[in-house]
Each structure stands twice: as structure tokens, then as C-alpha cells.
Specification:
Blueprint: H1 2-17, E1 29-35, H2 53-60, E2 63-69, H3 75-84, H4 88-91, H5 111-116, E3 121-125, E4 140-142, H6 154-168, E5 173-178, H7 214-244, E6 250-256, H8 271-274, E7 275-281, E8 290-297, H9 301-308, E9 338-342, E10 353-357, E11 361-365, H10 374-380, H11 394-397, H12 402-412, E12 417-421, H13 439-455, H14 463-474, H15 490-503
EC number: 3.1.6.6
Family: Belongs to the sulfatase family.
Pfam families: Sulfatase
């Protein structure tokens, strides 16, 4: 009897010493939540007008990145970047998919194909908006429309997610859920959400817009109402994930796809267009309540996911895994610069720009200085054919202070370079490009941009390529190409060849 008891004790000790094969040590699932057209206007980022308790809670349960950025502040290029881990000029999606822009190559490795190779079941809820769609062969798709009119409630996205989780069975999964808020139109309420709406008297003007009026504050209020509705959807989705039993083994990443559609936001290379919220919750890996200050980018998402599922990260990717930043450990060696670009995204808004910033300074490069920046007109000219509801009207512009008017003028017809001290001027009102005091830092960022363009083989670093691209865009401002089923922009083939020649 004593020997039998001893054997039991020894067995229990051995079992206790074995590693537990619990949820945290199996292949993790990945839930990527993407919202439309919003910067970090969330409570957890310090916005006092935001009503986002669910996203705030997610941040408290994970890591919030204070300085997260997109590579291009329009939907299709941004999405192509986080799906491929490449800058827009590297993958080819340098404009909107609805305007025939596309990847250079349909066989570009991406988060879907790479995870399927690791035996993951992949799902997409909401729009993809990258061409060609065949490059992303998701196993499961639901609600493929943009749903900008919010005909489908947030509950439909949650129901689709639950259906996907049931279909995955025991297979590890990757699911991308793409909510339509806060894209235009800024609907004050949809399907009774939010239950209590905000009005213009409840908010202040977004500080980076410049103009202010009762009308604009009503538009801002409805933007915040969209954010509240988004937050409701995210809360319901995370509750459903918890009920599924998979939450403890799921890496959750939340991002906005670019900044809000207000002047000097979406479509620009100003901070309000490029800076986004990014929150990562990963039980057992990400330390709850951590805030990181490093400069991170959406191109870091794919390397992070591959690192999480223990798959090799292709050497061609421009991003890097965020895993070393998921605790409050001391700073690790990280990138010094963040880069971005725009082409205006379609002919009606065409204008080529590049930007580079470090922790303090920001440089904007305009390779065709002194020409009209067409995208500025959609925000500053109410008669522009693509003017938006958030545009500054003439009567509102007449009331802006002189420094704001000077900044508007720079935006409308940019000089060769713009240079901003983000520590002293976070909203980029005062262009210091001609300041002798900042000449050394300006030259340093110019060199960093040139080095980056050479290293990543940016076709738009070549003046001939810029001229050819802009010429074709401006000659198609009537948008008739949209009715041509076989239309293809010249850049898709020409820029691909240029990059291949530079690689050789």
C-alpha cells in the first residue's frame, strides 16, 4: 500500500512538471478588426468627446500603440499594405480598386495565402477593396459590399463571424472583420445605434481641420456617432468571441484603415490622414494596459501574425514583427523613420507626394511643386465635383486665422518641400522648409527619404515615371475608363518592369 501511494505521488509530481497543452500553447487564432476612415479619436487615446468603452477596454486588456501609421491614407492602398506587408509602391495598389488600380502581380504573397499554407482557415467579413480579388482566396466570405449606407446592422457582422467560427471546427483560423463606420456618409443613427446621439453642441472641431462653424461641428458630431456605432459592433464581436471559447487563444488586432475624411485628413500625407489607432490583445503574450511610443506601421501586421503562428517571415517584407513591443520592457532597437505616400488615389484628386517623419520632425516631398493639389480642392472648394460634406465652405474659410489660411495655401499649391516640427506644431500649420535653423534636420530627412526610395525601388522616385503617371491620370479625369471592362493603367506594367530592372 505504501509503495502504491508512493507511485501515485511520483506520477502526480511528473504530471505537474509537464508543460500544459492549454489554449495559450496551441496555434493561436487571429482576429483582425478594421474600421473605416478614422484616426485615433477614441477615449483610450485621450479624446474626451469619443464614446468608445469597448475599444477602450480592449486597450486596457492589451497594448495600445501611440504612434501607429498607414502607408497611404486611402482605403485600397492601405488595405493592400497590411495584407501584403509591403508599401503601396512595392505591391502596386497605389489607388482605389474602384478606379481600376491594382497589384502589380496577382501572385503576390499575402496574409491569406501564407496562413493557408500553415493550414489556417481564413475568413473575410466586409469589403476587401483590393485588385485583383482573386489574389486573396479567403475560405469564407460574408457581407462583401461596402455597406456605406449601413443597411446591414453591426449585428450582421457578428452573426457572420459566429458562422465562420463554427465552420472552422478544430482548425486554427484567421478572420478579418471590416466594419463600415466611420466612412461617409456620417449617419447620425442607424438601426437605433448609437442609442443616444451627439450633436454639434456636444463636441468641438477636430483640431487639425482649421476652420470652425456650427455646420462643421454638426458634421463632427455625426463622425463621433459613427465611432460610437463602430464601438458597439466591436463590443458585440468580442463578446461573441468570448462566448465561443476561443478568446484566450486569439490574437486580436484592431486598426483604423486611415484617418478621418475631413480637410487635411484622409487622402493626404498630413498626420491626420496617416496616424491611426492600433491595439493588440494577445493573452499570455501582450501585457495588459501597456502603451508603446515606437513608430509602428500597418506593414508590421503581417510579420506579427506570421511570428505569432510560428511561420517564417519572408525576407521581402518591409514590416517587422511587433512581438518585442507587446510588454512594458525597455525600448528595443526599432525603426527611426516612418514613410508614406499618396497619388491622390484617382484622377479627380491626382497629386503625388511622399512623406517621412521621425519622432519629432516631418518632411513632405512634392515632386511637382507649384501645381494644383487636386485633393485639396475636394476639401476646400464646395463647387468641386468630388467635394465632401466635411469640406470647408467659402464663408467658413473667410473666418480662419491667418496661419491657417497660409497652411491652406501651401496645401493647395505645395512647394518642393514642406517641413514641420511636430513637437511644437503637431497639426502642421507652420511650414519650416525655408528655415535656416532647421536646415540640417530637413537635409537629414531628405536623405532618409531618398535612401528609402532607392532601397524599396520606388518607381515614383523617378521624375519620368511621375510625369507619365500624372499625365495619364489627368487625361482620364472624365472617368470614362470605369465603363471599360478591360481597362488597365499603364503603371501596372511599366512600374513593375522598372522595379524588376532596378532589382537586377
Amino acid at each position: 500500500m505504501k509503495i502504491f501511494t508512493l507511485l501515485i505521488v511520483l506520477h502526480l509530481l511528473c504530471v505537474a512538471g509537464l508543460p500544459r497543452l492549454d489554449a495559450a500553447e496551441t496555434q493561436p487564432n487571429v482576429l483582425l478588426i478594421v474600421s473605416e476612415d478614422n484616426g485615433p479619436e477614441l477615449g483610450c487615446y485621450g479624446d474626451s468627446f469619443a464614446r468608445t468603452p469597448n475599444l477602450d477596454r480592449l486597450a486596457s486588456e492589451g497594448v495600445r500603440f501611440e504612434n501607429a501609421f498607414v502607408t497611404y491614407s486611402v482605403c485600397s492602398p492601405s488595405r493592400a499594405s497590411f495584407l501584403t506587408g509591403l508599401y503601396s509602391h512595392e505591391n502596386g495598389q497605389i489607388g482605389l480598386a474602384t478606379h481600376k488600380f491594382s497589384l502589380y502581380r496577382p501572385d503576390t504573397p499575402n496574409i491569406v495565402t501564407l496562413l493557408q499554407a500553415a493550414d489556417y482557415r481564413t475568413g473575410l467579413i466586409g469589403k476587401l477593396h483590393v485588385n485583383p480579388e482573386s489574389a486573396f482566396p479567403f475560405d469564407f466570405k460574408a457581407i462583401p459590399s461596402a455597406n456605406f449606407q449601413r443597411r446591414k446592422d453591426v449585428t450582421a457582422y457578428v452573426a457572420a463571424a459566429e458562422k465562420f467560427w463554427q465552420s472552422a471546427d478544430e482548425q486554427p483560423w484567421f478572420l478579418s472583420v471590416n466594419f463600415p463606420d466611420a466612412h461617409l456618409p456620417f449617419l447620425r443613427q442607424a438601426h437605433g445605434r448609437p442609442e443616444t446621439v451627439q450633436t454639434g453642441s456636444d463636441v468641438e472641431m477636430l483640431p487639425w481641420v482649421g476652420a470652425d462653424s456650427e455646420r462643421l461641428r454638426e458634421v463632427v458630431a455625426d463622425y463621433y456617432n459613427c465611432m460610437a456605432r463602430l464601438d458597439d459592433g466591436v463590443g458585440q464581436l468580442l463578446t461573441a468571441l468570448q462566448k465561443s471559447g476561443a478568446a484566450d487563444n486569439t490574437l486580436v488586432i484592431y486598426i483604423g484603415d486611415h484617418g478621418a475624411q475631413f480637410p487635411r485628413g484622409k487622402g493626404t500625407v498630413y498626420e491626420a490622414g496617416l496616424r491611426i489607432p492600433m491595439i493588440v490583445r494577445w493573452p499570455g503574450q501582450a501585457l495588459p494596459g501597456t502603451v508603446r511610443q515606437e513608430l509602428v506601421s500597418i506593414i508590421d501586421i503581417l510579420p506579427t501574425v506570421l511570428n505569432a503562428v510560428d511561420r517564417p517571415v519572408p525576407g521581402a517584407l518591409s514590416g517587422r514583427s511587433l512581438k518585442p513591443l507587446l510588454t512594458d520592457a525597455a525600448s528595443v532597437p526599432w525603426r527611426e523613420f516612418i514613410f508614406a505616400m499618396t497619388t491622390g488615389s484617382f484622377p479627380g484628386n491626382c497629386f503625388v507626394q511622399h512623406s517621412v517623419r521621425d519622432r519629432r520632425f516631418k518632411l513632405i516631398s512634392n515632386p511637382q511643386p507649384g501645381t494644383d493639389n487636386l485633393i485639396s480642392r475636394s476639401y476646400l472648394d464646395e463647387s468641386h465635383p468630388f467635394a465632401v460634406v466635411s469640406a470647408v465652405r467659402k464663408d467658413e474659410r473667410r473666418n480662419v486665422p491667418a496661419p491657417i489660411e497660409r497652411a491652406y495655401a501651401v496645401w493647395e499649391k505645395p512647394p518642393r518641400y514642406e517641413f514641420y516640427d511636430l513637437q511644437e506644431d503637431p497639426y502642421e500649420w507652420n511650414n519650416l522648409a525655408d528655415s535656416d535653423q532647421h536646415a540640417a534636420d530637413k537635409d537629414r530627412l531628405i536623405k532618409a527619404l531618398h535612401d528609402f526610395q532607392r532601397r524599396t525601388r520606388d518607381p515614383l522616385s523617378d521624375a519620368d515615371n511621375v510625369n507619365a503617371f500624372v499625365q495619364q491620370q489627368l487625361s482620364n479625369r472624365d472617368l470614362k475608363y470605369r465603363r471599360q471592362p478591360n481597362f488597365e493603367w499603364d503603371y501596372v506594367e511599366e512600374f513593375r518592369k522598372w522595379r524588376e530592372q532596378k532589382a537586377q
